[in-house]
Amino acid sequence: MDFQELNEKLSSFDVNDIDWNNMGSWPLVGRVVFSIIVFVAVLVGLYFVNIQALSEEYEKVLTQEEALKTDFESKAFRVANLGAYKKQLNEIEESFGSLLRQLPRDTEVPGLLEDITNAATGASLEIVSIKLDKEVETEFYTELPINIDVIGEYHDFGAFVSAVAGLGRIVTLHNFDVESAKDSENANKLNLKIIAKTYRYNDELKKKKPRKKKRK
Fold first, then answer.
1. pLDDT of 64-84, one tens digit each?
2. Is 155 in contact with 133 (CB distance < 8 Å)?
3. Residues 127 and 117: beta-carbon distance below 8 Å
4. Residue 117 · residue 130 · CB < 8 Å
5. C-alpha–C-alpha distance, residues 133 and 113, integer Å
6. What is the mean pLDDT of the chain?
7. Per the structure, how many domains does the chain have?
8. Measuring CA to CA, which residue among 116, 187, 123 is closest to residue 145?
9. What is the pTM of this model?
10. Which residues is 173 bridged to in the sheet?
11. Rg of the chain's alpha carbons, rounded to an integer?
12. pLDDT tens, residue by residue, 30-60
């Protein structure tokens, strides 16, 4: 059957003449067209039912693959530099231990109070009170708070803070509170309340409560 004959038969084909109960009696052209339609319909159905789902699954797998590659590269880098990390960790631990050993093992309270008193008088401040607070123990050191209450000029406070910061022992200053002096004799002056903290290496506590080494 050539193309011209097929075209003529398609032109003379009438859908109303189709006997759906007896497809074997259809003309060849009708059977060919029907087969093509069925074939195309099957392909479209397969795409939406199966191929599209597989395509979405494929995209999902690709995304997971990229994430796994990134994770693998990160872990491979860590493994490759594990030796350097361990060396750096040992250096940090040694440095931290050295800093702890620099803390005084016995807080010389009288000497510290004398140093703070000299720093205050040297800055032309009037000392209202210097009171020791309760010690606070941590894992590595013991903290000794000292409540300081002084009166003076604003710029004298700066000199006092600088003097305390320059003491030979480790002292930190916290909770600055500056207000007008309530005493009528010091009406033009300011009242500074501040907490100074010094520290002692907690060697005795460490002996009483041995720490278990944790693998990090």
1. 999 999 899 888 888 888 888
2. no
3. yes
4. yes
5. 13
6. 78
7. 2
8. 116
9. 0.49
10. 196
11. 44
12. 677 778 888 888 877 777 767 767 778 888 8
